[in-house]
Design the sequence.
């Protein structure tokens, strides 16, 4: 894997994605990596973040390994809008949405061809995707469809907590309907396999309930009794160390790993998007990493969005992007035959 670069997609051209990439390279902490995006947008980002840093325009990812230190290797993505630079920074723009989707599509092709070590995606904007007519609400769905993968799940992680989600980018009303026996069991299987791939052969999985107090024995809802509990039992019958369902307002505290206290669980499976993501983000958005489990390649991303309110200032913090790059390399290495 050391003979392949990490691939970074530039994200929404109107957001902070290009800027945090430029700042990460400026710090000299990216290692062997290449940016898939628009050369003009990356030149603008380099200028915004403290002056011109050299860009090396390359034609194949492997060329990034030969680029001199201190420059940003950029692979110009195909078929981007010709007037992309005219899209205003900090604003939703269909051109930026179309460009972001095209970069992701090409990144999948490169990863499936084995030309890159892993993919790290900078933030995109769901409204910009919709404005461009992209039929997917986010990265996870695009990556799954374009890679031909089976079921995938979102994991948000930092050094203290890892959370895997049963449902993601849908309304809360629809998410509740999507919490089924099959969905919960599939999530437990995917989480178990992913943890095994990065070296935890017997991960302890804590499962959060859906309802307050995990339903309180059916007083506040029976999904824990009729759906989640049976899925946990089925997973345990397959040799998966899944436990619960536990009250969702306390299970994350029990799972948290700190220098003073080891957590009770290695992963938490949460039923809905915000149930699972709020605890991880509260611990520090600069440390969080989003990873897609179940893909045929490694993909991570920062745990924040496009931050249109500060885009264009050149001072966005690249810490979460750098954390995503470190995790991508660790996971890619762990997947290799020993």
Sequence:
């Amino acid at each position: 894997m050391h003979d392949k670069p990490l691939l970074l997609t530039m994200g929404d051209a109107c957001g902070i994605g290009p800027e945090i990439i430029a700042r990460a390279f400026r710090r000299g902490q990216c290692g062997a990596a290449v940016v898939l995006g628009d050369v003009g947008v990356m030149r603008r980002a380099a200028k915004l973040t403290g002056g011109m840093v050299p860009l090396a325009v390359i034609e194949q990812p492997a060329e990034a390994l030969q680029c001199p230190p201190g420059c940003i290797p950029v692979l110009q993505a195909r078929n981007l809008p010709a007037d992309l630079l005219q899209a205003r920074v900090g604003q939703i723009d269909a051109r930026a949405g179309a460009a972001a989707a095209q970069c992701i599509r090409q990144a999948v092709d490169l990863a499936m061809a084995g030309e890159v070590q892993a993919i790290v995606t900078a933030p995109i904007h769901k409204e910009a995707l919709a404005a461009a007519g992209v039929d997917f609400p986010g990265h996870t769905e695009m990556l799954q469809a374009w890679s031909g993968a089976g079921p995938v799940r979102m994991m948000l992680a930092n050094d203290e907590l890892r959370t895997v989600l049963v449902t993601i980018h849908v309304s809360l009303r629809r998410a509740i309907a999507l919490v089924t026996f099959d969905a919960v069991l599939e999530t437990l299987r995917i989480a178990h396999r992913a943890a095994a791939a990065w070296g935890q052969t017997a991960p302890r999985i804590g499962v959060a309930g859906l309802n307050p107090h995990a339903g309180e024995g059916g007083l506040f809802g029976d999904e824990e009794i009729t759906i989640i509990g049976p899925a946990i039992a089925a997973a345990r019958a397959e040799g998966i160390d899944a436990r619960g369902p536990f009250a969702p307002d306390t299970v994350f505290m029990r799972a948290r790993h700190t220098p003073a206290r080891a957590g009770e669980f290695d992963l938490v499976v949460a039923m809905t998007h915000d149930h699972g993501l709020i605890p991880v983000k509260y611990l520090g958005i600069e440390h969080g990493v989003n990873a897609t489990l179940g893909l045929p390649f490694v993909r991570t991303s920062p745990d924040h969005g496009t931050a249109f309110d500060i885009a264009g200032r050149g001072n966005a913090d690249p810490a979460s992007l750098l954390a995503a790059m470190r995790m991508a390399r660790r996971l890619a290495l762990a997947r290799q035959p020993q």
The chain has eleven helices and twelve strands. The mean pLDDT is 92. Residues 94-112 form the longest helix (19 residues). The longest strand covers residues 33-37.
